[in-house]
Amino acid sequence: MIAADKAGLVFRAHYFDDRAAWQGLCDLLQDIFEIDVSGMDRLGGPDPTSAPFGFFDADGTCIANITAFAMPLVIDGVFVRAAGLQSGAVRPGHRGRGLYRAVMEAALNHCDAEGFEAVLLLTDTPALYEKHGFRPLSQHRFAGTPPVGGQASAARRLQVGNEADLTLLSRLLDGRAPVSDRFAPLRQKEMFLFNASLIPDLKLDLLEEAGAVVAWQADDDGDVDILDIVGTRMPALADILASLAVAAQRVTVHFAPDHLAWNGEALADDGEMVLMLRGPDGLRPALPFALPPMAEF
């Protein structure tokens, strides 16, 4: 780890088993990003593979942090042992002291020691991470005319606030197949559930015959957005829309639709958040892709 001005601070790693320290991180993220991650406790807790690295003051206040976690991926049909970085923040009064660089290097050293082939993060300040070997990955969404002639099956709305539905969804997330062979996480249960509790107007519908849950949104103009699909196999998009009984005028799929028996136009993502990868150039997907919004971290 490089030298940092740590006067009065204590460096801590792997501290999620300490409830006071976990609450300190929750407070940091609430204060900096106005995101209440303490809600993850009700959803089963943070990712058990998490490895947090942070600085704390004498009162137990979390001053700086970044957390690494296992994020196995499929990229171009090949399994990749990857990690993600999240919860990176420094309190304003302590910036410029090298604290963030110190926790970043601690996290990357951990990822290297664990043998991860790649490390990913999402950021709105990509230049900050290029010095650590990260490079941006261009993401796309896929839009077009909805397919017709699908076969409808029974669908049931799930609620993450319902314990039985949460248990079912957790089980499906544990055994899910990748939503795309171009680029997709193999597990991301904790972030899926957390994002489901945050995204406005999100619908989670279980297609009972397929045993798959569709995360989707719709607006009053007939536009439908498919954010993710959780199941051991992917239903065709025509069957999904028929089962949801939605008269879509236009559909947008927020991941590569190579398993959906439908091809939309690949449109470059114009959002503020940039997906970045640290790893060999050969791990970059050959065709347009996107990280599903339900897996964003």
Keywords summarizing the entry:
single chain, 297 residues, alpha+beta, Aminopeptidase, 2 domains, 7-stranded mixed β-sheet, 6 helices, 17 strands, 22% helix, globular, Acyl_CoA_acyltransferase, GNAT family N-acetyltransferase, acyltransferase activity, EC 2.3.1.-, GNAT_dom
Spatial gap, N to C terminus: 25 Å
CATH class of the largest domain: Alpha Beta
Lateral strand order in the biggest sheet: 1-2-3-6-7-17-8
Count of individual beta strands: 17
Could you describe the largest sheet, including whether it forms a barrel? 7 strands, mixed
The CATH architecture name of the largest domain reads 3-Layer(aba) Sandwich
Q: Determine the number of helices (DSSP H or I, runs of at least 4 residues).
A: 6
Q: Which residue ranges are poorly predicted, with pLDDT under 50 across at least 5 consecutive positions? A: none
- In terms of DSSP E residues, the strand content is 25-35%
Structural class: alpha+beta
What integer is the average pLDDT? 95
Percent in helix: 10-25%
What order do the SSEs take from the amino end to the carboxyl end, as H and E?
Answer: EHEEEEEHEHEEEHEHEEEHEEE
Walkthrough of the structure:
The chain has 297 residues and is α+β, with helices and mostly antiparallel strands. The chain has two domains: 10-116, Gcn5-related N-acetyltransferase (GNAT) (Aminopeptidase); 142-268, 3-Layer(aba) Sandwich (Aminopeptidase), CATH 3.40.630. Helix content is 22%, strand content 30%. It is built from six helices and 17 strands. The protein has helices spanning 19-33, 99-113, 127-130, 163-174, 189-198, 237-244; strands spanning 10-13, 51-56, 62-70, 73-75, 78-80, 82-90, 118-123, 135-137, 140-144, 155-158, 183-185, 203-207, 212-218, 223-230, 250-253, 265-268, 274-278. The strands form three sheets. Strands 1-2-3-6-7-17-8 form a seven-stranded mixed β-sheet. Strand 2 (51-56) and strand 3 form a beta hairpin. The longest helix has 15 residues, at 19-33. It is globular, with a radius of gyration of 20 Å. The two termini are 25 Å apart.
